[in-house]
Amino acid sequence: MPPVFDLPPSRWTFDSATWPAEDCVAAGADLEPQTILNAYSRGAFPMPVEEIEPMLWWSPVTRGVLRVSDAHVSRSLRRSLNRFEITVDRSFGEVIDACGDPQRPGAWISESIRDAYVRLHDLGWAHSIEARTHDGVLAGGVYGIAIGGLFAGESMFHHVRDASKVALMGLVSLLDDEHAGERLIDVQWQTPHLSSLGVTEMPRNAYLEALPTVCSVPLPRAFATS
To answer: Which residues, in sequence order, are bridge partners of residue 9?
Structure first.
């Protein structure tokens, strides 16, 4: 696949032909922007595990994905949509800090991960979608990496009930353009909560096969101009 980003080449390679048949596929490397983007474009992402060094890289055997056409908005969620307003890239630091709150169950966002993704945001690759109350208060959000038609969601949070779901549906709306059928939201793993919103599972080999085409789709306008 041709390069999809204008950065120096990474020192590290991510070759799926060498990956084991388990979710964790590699350890080590670094968190330079070109390394992280190279990993995403080849189906891997970094996620630390507490007290384990070095950094671990993951490519789930069964990937959780959401297509625009599969997004499901329940009657109750539809009512919640009217309670919030969606903004893009207005509060990236606040969103990643809320997602990384150490008081949250399963918190995993380390200082090194935070710094790496803030740097990617500054370079225009990482984005946040925020759900705000009508008086402008940040109520929930989601952040991730956008490469062409791929949005690799990293984490989401809410301070107000349903605000994270509204942010995710806000993301879906941003991707609902003339290329909607070619776009893909990667949520890493499916959960019952995400399944209720339309997330389905894709085998790793199918995900990796689709990825070059997905990454070649133009960025949605909201990210191309943010």
So the answer is: none
Domains by residue range for the chain, with CATH: 21-60 (3.30.70.3550), 63-224 (3.40.630.70)
| C-beta neighbour count of 127 within 10 angstroms | 24
Encode pLDDT of 43-91 as tens digits.
Answer: 999 999 876 679 999 999 999 999 999 999 999 899 999 999 999 999 9
Helices (H), 42-185: 75-81, 92-99, 111-122, 163-175
DSSP character at residue 16: G
Q: 43 by DSSP, 3-state: which?
A: coil
Taking Cα atoms as reference points, which of 209, 165, 161 lies closest to residue 187?
A: 165
Question: Which amino acid is it at 150?
Answer: L
**How many residues make up the chain in this entry?**
226
Q: At 27, is the secondary structure helix, strand, or coil? A: strand
Model-level pTM? Answer: 0.93
State how far the Cα of 190 lies from the Cα of 51, in Å rounded to an integer.
Answer: 25
